[in-house]
Amino acid sequence: MELSLKVVPGSFAVCRLPAGSEMPHWFHPGGFASVSWSDQELSLACDETLVPEGVQCEREWSCLMLQGPFPLHLTGVLLRVLQPLAAANLGIFAVSTFDTDYVLVKTRSLEKARQALLASGLSFID
User: Fold this and answer.
1) Rounded to whole angstroms, what are the CA distances from 71 to 64, 68, 100, 123?
2) Is the C or the N end of the chain the one with fewer CB within 10 Å?
3) CATH code of the domain covering residue 30
4) Would you list the DSSP string of 13-43?
5) Count of domains for the chain
6) Within 10 Å of residue 23's Cβ, how many Cβ atoms?
7) Is the pTM of this model over 0.85?
8) Collapsed DSSP state (helix, strand, coil) of residue 92
9) Is the peptide bond before 24 cis (omega within 30 degrees of 0)?
């Protein structure tokens, strides 16, 4: 299976709010955004311009979208992206949806990530 990725326009933040938090008023999904609740935290990934100062977050992430959709029973799709990134010693933040996966890498490492993924046989579309 050929696997292609697309760089999602924008700069993103990965945020952590305390467990039990309500959805913050400043979070307005559009384009790529993700929300995950657990007993320990509320995690958000979104356009970094939405996130006010004082919110616990890491800014300056770039988002790579795997070109799906992929059936849920298909195995190894995300692994094909994560292995070359791990081999290049690049940290990631991964998000899966029903149709596809997204991998965020620090913006300063985007070109290194692109080169590692291209060298592993993956391709990019504009």
Assistant:
1) 19, 9, 9, 20
2) C
3) 3.30.2130.10
4) EEEEEETTPPPPTT----SS-EEEE-SSEEE
5) 1
6) 12
7) yes
8) coil
9) no
- Beta strand 101-106 with 123-125 is unpaired
Segment 69-124, tens digit of pLDDT: 666 677 678 899 999 999 999 999 999 998 889 999 999 999 999 999 999 999 99
Q: How far is CA 41 from CA 23, 65, 125, in A?
A: 12, 25, 34
Give the CA angle between residues 109, 76, 35 to the nearest 5°.
60
Question: What's the pLDDT tens digit per position in 97-112?
Answer: 988 899 999 999 999 9
- Best CA proximity match to 96, nearest among 45, 29, 27, 57: 45
How far CA 65 is from CA of 6, 19, 44, in Å, comes to: 5, 28, 17
- Looking at this protein, which amino acid is placed at residue 45? A
